[in-house]
Amino acid sequence: MKQIVETRNLTKVYNGKIRAVDNVSIDIGEGEIFGLLGPNGAGKTTMIRMLVTLTRPTSGSVLVAGSDVVKEARKVREIIGYSSQEAGVDEQATGRGYLTLFGHFYGLDGQTIRRRVDEVLALLELTDAADRLTGTYSGGMRKRLEIATALINKPKLLVLDEPTLGLDIQTRARIWDHIRALNSDGMSILLTTHYLEEADKLCDRVAIIDYGRIVVMGTPNALKGEIHGDVVSLTLPPEEPDQWEKTFEKVRQLLADQPLVREIQPTNDGLNVYVDQRGAAVPLILHVVEDAGVVIEDLSLSRASLDDVFIKYTGRTMREERGQALGARKTWFGG
Amino acid sequence: MTGLLRSTWYTLDRLIRAFVRTPFWIVIYLIQPLIWLLLFTQIFKSITVLPGFSTSSYVQFFAPGLIVTLAVFNSNFSGFQILSDINFGVLEKMLVTPVNRYGLIVGSLLYVAVTGIAQIVIVLGVSFLLGASVVTGVGGVLLTFVIVSLLAMGITGLLTALALRVKKPEPLVFVSSLITLPLIFLSSALIPASLTPDWVQTVMRFNPVNYAILAVRPLFLTGYDWTAIAQALIVCGALALVAIAVATVAVRRFGD
What we know:
Chain A is of the alpha/beta class. Chain A is built from 12 helices and 15 strands.
């Protein structure tokens, strides 16, 4: 398979010390939908910005379709489309006017621009609103216009930074459909997300990124396959941190010998127990824990998700805020 | 080259379209010079009796000064223009395209020049009604357009570079309110240089605004002063070129 993106030891350091992206080497194949999954502040956006020529890497390299993003920035710009997180639209322009402007910026001729503008408006279901000022658009429409501007040059690689951030469920599903349709026409797509479901349902391959590093990469199914079966999440009552650590160790030891239990991972407020047969495992866990005199505040049961993959590799859940997660990690591992 | 021209043209086109779509701005832009003209000519009516005034009419003296003053004020204000593109993420979207970076800057500075010329036309029209005239005629008016536009592009360009660097309005407000009045008062825009203290006259020699007014005022009052015109074109032209270069560097480094 030919590569549309190749990064080698890609690194971005801010202010001489913050390693936003740290030594990342990934290959993305042509025709793939590739997802960068990670919590806020993990380095996803910085990585994307280097790929689309907005930010210069501190060290390492990125090739897009064989062209270097620093030395051959112009060539790269001609074949990529980029939709940013903020949905950047010019409120003083109509949807059609804004798209036409981008057509001119890509150096297309007038006739091609008119045709492409009509095509992308139709594709993203904006034809009816095309001649209204974008200031009157809803959040979902802005996001679609933003994606439309990224498509005006028929890019080989479409880069989407959090394409469904803050959108309602229906709009999100529609944008997923649009992304799939573009991909089935052969467009390579790189997206960032912190929605597990989005990475799971949409992406051919996912890289989980944390503190600027790729912690694991693979197809969503392969990643989830590493987890096995079901997850029983136990929430322990909040206590003194050192007390908490003891409780966690105690529960871990109690459960580790049980045949149904495959793995135990700490979370921010308790622990996840990965089990084979949940029907049998839940009463067993409750029984063992209760006998030991440990109080459980809450218990929930779920199928293994990418969040569990994240927990496995980082020791914390992705859904939490970064500050809390850091604190939790310190608690558990005494760091 | 075609890339530069194309990028310049479509940037200018976009900004003018946005301006025309906002009637509020148009009204403000048209009314502002009228208010200034009215206030200054009324308040300073008797100033011409002071020794050192070469004309008997303050309108005659002040029209060119007002034109330059307006350009300084509006170019200070125009430095903020790029902030909304930064805030709305529009600038980043543009920077991901192969658009020529000089074109983005030159186009937005030409927009300042075009709107500035529209204001000059208004000032001229009203001044004529109040009895002022331009002794050099159409040639002098065109030269005024060029000199004032270069000055406005220079000031706007430098503030645009600052805006691209700091990415928020507060430092711009500070800088522009710090420099606007000194730029005007340390020139002979409102009062003849001979009526000011020596140190002010010395400082004036380093103020591009003063070069503009020294070239433009004779076009209205006495005739072509080619030395002053050449100096103004060199000083304001150099200012504009430096501003374009600095702002283009700033736009290239915007994402770093």
